[in-house]
Amino acid sequence: MINSSHLTALALAMIAILSGCSLFGNNEPEYMVSVEGKPLEIPAGLNAPTAARAVVISVPLLRMPAGDELEPMPPRVVNTAGKQATNTYMAWSAEGAYLMVKDTPQSVARRLRFAIVNSGMTMLEMGESGTHKFHYTQVFLNEEGFFSKLAFWRDNAVDYSGIFMTQLKADGKNTRVYLFFGNGEPVDTAGTEHILGIFMDRLG
Predict the structure, then answer these.
(1) With 50 as the cut, is the pLDDT of residue 19 above it?
(2) In what order do the strands lie in the sheet containing 133-136?
(3) Taking 60 as the threshold, does the pLDDT of residue 72 lie above it?
(4) Which whole number is the average pLDDT over 23-30?
(5) Any idea what the Cα angle at residue 184 is, between residues 179 and 188, rounded to 5°?
(6) DSSP code of 184?
(7) Which helix (H) or strand (E) holds 197?
(8) What domains lie within the chain, and their CATH numbers?
(9) For the whole model, what pTM was predicted?
(10) Across the chain, what does the average pLDDT equal?
(11) Residues 6+ apart with CB under 8 A from 23
(12) Which residues, in sequence order, are CB contacts of 93 under 8 Å at separation 6+?
C-alpha cells in the first residue's frame, strides 16, 4: 500500500505538472485581454496636471564620411610637424580636412591665385574672396623601383584630376582653405590632402 507521505508527494507532483501545462498552453498574454482605462477626470476647481516637457538635446551637424573615409587605405603622408614653426599645415574639422595658412584671407586669396597658376593648373574663375575654380590634371610619374613595388596598395593609383574650387574662412588672424568639387560638393580626405598638399608646398 502507498502510505500518506507518498500520496502527498504524488499529489504535489500532479499539481506542478498541471500548473506547468497551463503556463505553456494557449493562454493569451495579459496585455491581450487588458482594457484601457478611462481618461483621468479632474474634479471641478482643480487644475489638470502638467506633463513634463521633453529635454531637447542638440549636437552640431557633422559632415558624413565619404569616399576613402568609408574604405580606409594607407594615408598620404603630409608633413604637419612643427606647426608653430611653419606657415601652412593640414588640419581637420567637422567640415573635413583643410589647409591652415598663417596669413589674412585677403593675402591668402592672392597667394592662392598664383599657386594655382604656377602649379600648372588651369584657372577657370577667380574671386576676390578666394573662391577660385580651377581644373587640375594629375601627372603620374614612372615609379617602377623596388620600393614602389612593395607598396601593393598603390597598384591601382587614384586619379584626382577634375574641376575644383577653394573656399577661405577666417580663423582669428589665420585662414582656413577648404576644397570642394566644381559643383560645390565636398572632396574626400584623400583628394583634399592630395591637392591642398600641393598648395601647402607653394604657400609654405
Answers:
(1) yes
(2) 88-93, 96-101, 174-181, 162-171, 133-136, 122-125
(3) no
(4) 57
(5) 45
(6) S
(7) helix 189-203
(8) 104-137+149-204 (3.30.530.50)
(9) 0.56
(10) 76
(11) none
(12) 176
